[in-house]
Every structure is written in C-alpha cells, then in structure tokens.
Amino acid sequence: MRPIDNLRLFEKMSALFECYDRLALLTTDNEVLFMKYATLADIGTLPQCAEVSHKYLQIQDGDIVLTNDPYSGGTILSSPTLVMGVGTRNVKGNVPAEFLVVFRLTLTPKVAPAKTIDDEGLRIPPSPLYARGVANQAILDALKAHPMTPGNLLPLIEKWAKRLLETRERFKREYNSSDLNLTKGQIKNYLQDTEHEFSKRIDEFREGTGAIELQISPTEAIKLRAEHRESHWLFDFAGTTPGATLFMTDSATMGAAVGTVLGIMNLDAPINTGLLNRFEIKAPRGSMVNAAFPRPLYLGHTDGLNLIANAVALALGQIDTRLAWASSGPSYCSYELRFQDGRSFFDSLPVGGGASKKSKGSDGVYIWRRLPVNDSIEVCESEYPLQIVSAGFRASSGGAGLHIGGRGVAKTVRLIEAAELAWQFVSPIHKPEGVNGGKSALGPEMIVHFADGREQTLAHSGRIQLARGDQFTVLGPGGGGFGPA
Amino acid sequence: MAWSIGLHLGEHFSEVVAQFNGEAVSPDGPGRLVKKRFFTPQMAPEAGLSQFLTENSIQKIDRAQLATSWPQRIIEARHGSSIAVLTTSGFESWLELTQPLKTQFFSPHPERPTPLFDSEFVFGVNERVNAQGHIEKLLEETELEFLCSKLELNQIKNIAVCFLHSYKNSTNENLARKYLEAKGYQVYISSQWAPSPGPVPDHSQNEKTRFWQTIRNAYCRPLFAERLQKISDLLTPLLSDPSQLKMGKDDLSQSISGLTAPLADSNSVTDFITQKFAPATPLLYCGLEEFVLLDGSRRKSTPISNEKLRLQPLTTLGRTFLSPISFRPETASYDPGPITFGRGHTPTLFDLVVSAKDFVPPMGAAEKVTDRGRNRLNEHMVAYARSSSDKMNVPADQLIKALLQMAGEILRDDIRNKLVTQNAAKNVIELRIAGPLAAIIAPLLRAPLFKVTALDDEFLAAKALLLSAGGVA
Predict the structure, then answer these.
(1) Is the pTM of this model over 0.80?
(2) Across the interface, do A387 and B90 touch by the CB < 8 Å criterion?
(3) Among residues A141, A391, A436, B85, which one has the fewest Cβ atoms lying within 10 Å of its Cβ?
(4) What residues in A contact B416, CB-CB < 8 Å?
(5) Chain B residues touching A266 at Cβ < 8 A
(6) B3-75+225-267 and B268-461 in the same fold
(7) Tell me, what's the ipTM?
(8) Full domain range(s) for residue A236
C-alpha cells in the first residue's frame, strides 16, 4: 500500500520535527524530503543553506553549522540558520552525514536603510558551531565578543542546537527501528509519488503563458514570463532590471514562485524534491531577483518577495482565469523605534489580500508569512514608552470591484519619550493592482504628525528623530479588487 | 441518607453515575452504583436524566457534581446569542484583526474563524486608561446613551465591555456596567478575568486573552443558562441543600449567571478526571466526543485537538495530497452521525474503531451502530482503495486495519511529543488509559517506549464527578 506507506513516512517526519517552525530535512545528495516553512523565502533558501553549508564544511554526524548569510542560503540577518548532520551508521570515529536537518530561528529584525548587507547587521558565514555533538567554544567566544551580536542570539542558538542534537538521537533510534522508514527505496517511492500527484494537479489547469511587468519605482521593474507546459511550471524573470532599492537572492525568488503557485492552487502539499522537480525558475544574475553580494536584502526578502508573489499571481491569472487573483498589499511597512535608553521596538503591519473571482480579499493578514506576532497593545504600551492611539483596518484601502480587495491596516503611535524612527517599505508609487476590471488598492504610506502641528509624509525608507508627543501613522496597503464594480 | 450523583453533559452523549450512601433504603444496600449513558440528539439531557432518576427510584440527593462541554460546543457551532462589544475608541476592529488565521498553509485568501459578533455592533467609546493604570479619559454616560436605542432596535441584551488596561484600573468598565445594567442589559466586563499583577509581567495575559474571554462568555451564556436551568429545575427539588448542586467549580446557580468564571474553561470535566485519576501519572481519556491527554503532574490538561495533537474520535477520513484516504484535519458530528450509525456520509476514526473485530461499542453508542452502517463503511473503504488505481487494491478490512495502525502511530507520537519535554525520550512513558473507546485505543498504543495501563472504566468521566460529590471509589 504505497500511499499509506508515504503517508506514514510524512506523519513520522511531522511528529519528529513538531517543535520546529522553519525546518527542512534533506539527504546529503540534496534531495529535499520534508519542509516546514514560515515565509516564502524559506521554501527556496532552507535547501540552499544546507547545500552550501555541506559543500564547504563537509558536515559529519553531530556537526552543526551556523549561518545567517543570505548569500549562503539565509534570508534576513535576524533569521540565523542551523544545519545539522545526521549519520545512521554505527561506526567509531567520524560518521559521514547521510541527512541534513536545517532549522531557522526567528529573532527581532533591525530596520535600517542600508547600502550593503553588512549595514544591516552582523553577517555570519557558514561556521562550525558544533563538531560531533560538542560545542565549538572558539566560535561561541567570537560571537560573544562581537559588538553587533544580538543579545539573545547566543542563548537561543545554544538552546536550539541542544534540541537539534536530541532530535538527532530520536531520528537515529526511529530510523534504526524502522519506525522512520527512510530507506533509499522508500525515499524514491515517496518522491516519485509526490511528483506524480503534483503533475496530476497541475494538469487540472490550462496550459499557456502569461507575461507581466511590475513597475516598482522609476528605475525598477520586475518582468516575468510564466509558462505552464507538460505538467511543468516555468518562471522566467529575463528583462527584470537591476535593483536600486530592492534586492533578492535567486533562492528566495525561487521560494516565492513555488510558494505562490502552491497557495494559488490551494494545495497543502508536502514540499520535497518530487514537487520541486516540476518547477523551473530563471533569475538573471545581477537583476533584482538574483542580486550579487554585497547588496542589502532586508527589504527584498520581506516586501520584495510579496511583489514576486503578486507578479506570479497575475501571470497565472493570464494562463488560466481560475487562477486569477488581484495583487495583495506588497509591503509590511516595517519600522523600528530606538529609544535613548537602548530599547528598541520593532513592528510591521499585515496587508490587504487581493480579491478573486470567488471571493473578496482578506482584511489585514500576513498572506505569505506565518511568523509569530506579538501585537498586544497592552504589552507594547507596558514595555515601551509609547502609546498606540489607534489600530485597525484602514478604511477604503481595498481596491473596488465586483469583489472588493482586502483592507490594509492603519496604526497611529504617540511617543512618550524621544526616539529615532527607522522604516522601510516598497516605493509608494506601486499600488496593488486589481484584475479583470477591478481597481487598484491604496499603497503604503507613513505620515509623521509633530507635536508642534507640522505634518510630514515619509519617503519609502529612512530615519528621523522624533520628540516626546510626536505621533506617526502607518498606513498599510490594501489588496486589489476583482472585476468591474 | 440519599444519593450522590456525577453527571457529565456532553454535546451528544451524556453520562450519569449515582451512588446510594444510605444503609437500608436501597434494596441493593449501601454503595449501590447505577449508571447510564444517553444519546442526546434523540433524548434531551433533562429527559434522559429524568428517566434515569425514575428507573432507579432516586428521590433524594445529598450532592450532585456536574460538568459540561456545552459552552465550548455553543461557541464552536456558533449557536450563541447576538452580542454587542464596547471597546476603547480607535480599536473597534482590533478584535477581529487579532483573531488567528484558520488557514495554516499559504493561501492568497487566508481566512479567520467566523466571528462571534457582528462588526456593526462593535462600538468605540471615548475612554482611556494608560499602561500605568491612570485614567486619561474618564468615561462619560453620554457616550453610552446613543447605544441603547440601537441595541434595543436589534434586540441585543448582552454586552461585552473590553477596555484597554482595565486590569490595572477598572473604573471605566465599572461605570459602563453600572449604566448599562441599570438599563436592563446583561453586562460582562473584561477586568473580571484580569490576572493579579505580579512582579514579573505575564505577557500571556493581555487584552486579547481577556477580551475574548469576555466575549465568549457574553456569547454563550444565554443558551448555556437556558439549558442548565432545565437540569437545575429537575435536580434542585431533590436536594436537601441546593448549594450542594455544583457545576464545575461553582454552584450551579452561579454558573447560570455566567458572571463568575470563564464558562468555556471552568465547567469542563477534565480537571475532575485529572484530580481523581491522573494526579501523577498521565492519563489518556478516550471519550466518545474527545480524546484528552491529562497530566496532573503538570497541573494542566491538554486537549488532543486538531491544532496540537491530531486525532479525535470524529476525525474524518478522506483524500489528502499523499493518499486517497487518510486522516483529515476536520472533525464530524454525531448528528447525523458517523457512517456506522447508518446516517452519516463521512467515515471517521470512530467508524474504524467500532468496526474492529471483537470490539463491543459502549453503552449509548452500541444501539446506534447498525449492520447497514458497517456495510456502508466497508463500501466506502473499497471505493477509496479503488480510487488509488492498483496501488491500494486491498480488501476493506485490511485497509481499516492499516488505518487503525496509523492512528495508533499518530496518537503515540502526539502523546510522546506532549509528554516528553525533550525530544529524546530517556525513560519509558507510563500512561493510563480509560473511557468508552479505551478498549480499542489501548492496544494501538503499545510500543517499546510506552507502558500502558488500561483502567477498564468506561464511565470514568461521570465517576470522577461522583467522587467529587462524595461518592466512594
């Protein structure tokens, strides 16, 4: 009973990795077997991170590699990744890893308008954190000594590295008792059957091509040609301009394309090599969707990937109208308040979802992100010298249409102590597009209301010093409408 | 001397156990124990209870301990009342915005659960307490006057008052309550469930927890009270001391008022089972309506829910990406019923369980399981197997066996993940198991890492309540 065997394997892997939110399991031959993701970028970058780490450090059983470098398969600098080797052979000495477990942590990001990746914070290239289950004190000491190391990084990576090593013990025990059936034959069946089933699902949609050009700013545009042919999806970004404000890595771009397709196909499918075999992504080197070191990546790997998702959604809608979705709000409007006593408050806003033939857009949601959010008003006001004056849906921000786009979110914050405000969002000239005659939604905006009565609309990125009593309002984008109103 | 009663009121099954405490009145002598389970879609709880009392000539009761899952079910089924919500101006849509998404995987249209209130009846009022508990804007009655006519027009009688930082200073919430109660409304204020401020801030307790608790109470209390009143009317005349009629942690009359405790949490049977049967060793209660993992040593109960541990008795079977048949995230209801009841359309774990060889369905459910229903389940299984080309062309009983085996593995892994804080199990997991479906679940859990002891008591829930009502084990 192959389907039941596949299911049991999937359930086993789900149970084994239940306590992890962002994780992938691969063979050392780079076959992806299992994945849990929280962002679009995770889908492409978790495997990439394992591959790069193993390539350069030849990971053995019990080794753990630490990195947060987006150019080595990371996403943003506040999401460090641990790659652990698991070998199942009972031999003395170094046991070569047969499997790689990649786990990603989520720390609070820093919002900083930056010219290079190193302006965004501490970048850690793949580094050997544990060797055969033993901590590498030299690396830990170096991190401890570095002035840019976030305060909670070390305790967190130590806690999770230990947990990974415990998972490795359980993995081996279940593998050796055949509870976890990861024999070569079972892996082959599992990947083949996933690919076969995914091909069948793709074939339910019409074949064809779609072409999209999204103008992001006066000098930046994403060009995309999507093609569905013979149970394959091709996404070709040829013609996309180099970035001026937005930069992404090719693996993050790939993750955005795959995740969006699965979302639009409404598929709760396991992401593994079988499924990924049905995708081809072409991201020209040097363009904003495959940026070269040392471009800054925070904005690209947050808001930029939402733009890729919108481009993919619009192109799919051209191929088959059943797949048509208006654009969702592209920007999370990330901002950070740095108070004089060193405390730092980070926040971002959910967006409005695009409408479709079947439904209106969702109001105030993180469409392509499932990270935990601490959005309690009382907690924020108790921990930081600020008061939230209002927070709720942004009225009329969804695009009009037969089905209206989802509303974005509006939030107004008053400062009780002086602070520096840093912020980043995609260029306000980009409005989330409606489709099939639906209207575009309102784009992101940020306005400062100074205590002396002055008002200032902020550009897409920057820093500003605010005084006690000043207020600012963040207006998150809505989603595009569908069909003529 | 008279009887002690333990009564568990479930959504579809209610069970009652009574013990006579006297010496010579009962023909069976002291300690006589009688029990019954009834299927409430066919017999209302008060009718079933009345029949039970008559059948056993119970005319005098010393003490009765009740527990129920009704508030949760009213909320889950969205059967509650229309309510209005008053909140701090500027945060009218905040409650809706902070509801977690139902859709776990990526979707361009993530959805939230159906709200418990109509957004049209959320009103912002000018009031503000700051994070230090100082009143920045005192609530004025004029703020509330406009509300009353609108609420009257829409026949809304229940109001949840949810003001920011009210747990630090409840003056504004109390002003609102006083004014609205004087106008005849039932008012629920969020500061009622405020945590006591401790030296270390507890961020799990914030306005979201408090506001939703208030809203849930306001939403489910009218129907809950109506149902509970019928039980009260039946039992109160038999009690020498009406204060000995307890619902959850409170007197029944207090529970009916709905103002004393979070209704959805405080009336559950799980605390009683934990206290009586799982104070130190974890227990898996395999009820007809829910599987609950209880662990007194952690002083909390962990419902095996769809979100955390997956399988419930009515978890449905159907197509998933990897297989034409597997356990789905959804659960079914006993009304119209699982397939083996001969009326439902979707196979469930319950159907697999009652189809297992040699398993005698428990009282209350046994009468509902029909041969026609079992045949329909087999037909479904054959159809599922065939829909997977030739890869799963197996007889129905073999498929049922494989699915039950998988259910056991899923439950084992779930329980293990719940009980073993660290991933690597260092010790064998000791687990007790009881309840109406325990006989079939227990063998599925046997594995080297588990030491399972079956308590062989399918009336465990009602018995836990009976023990709290003075009964003797």
Answers:
(1) yes
(2) no
(3) A141
(4) 15
(5) 107
(6) yes
(7) 0.93
(8) 193-322
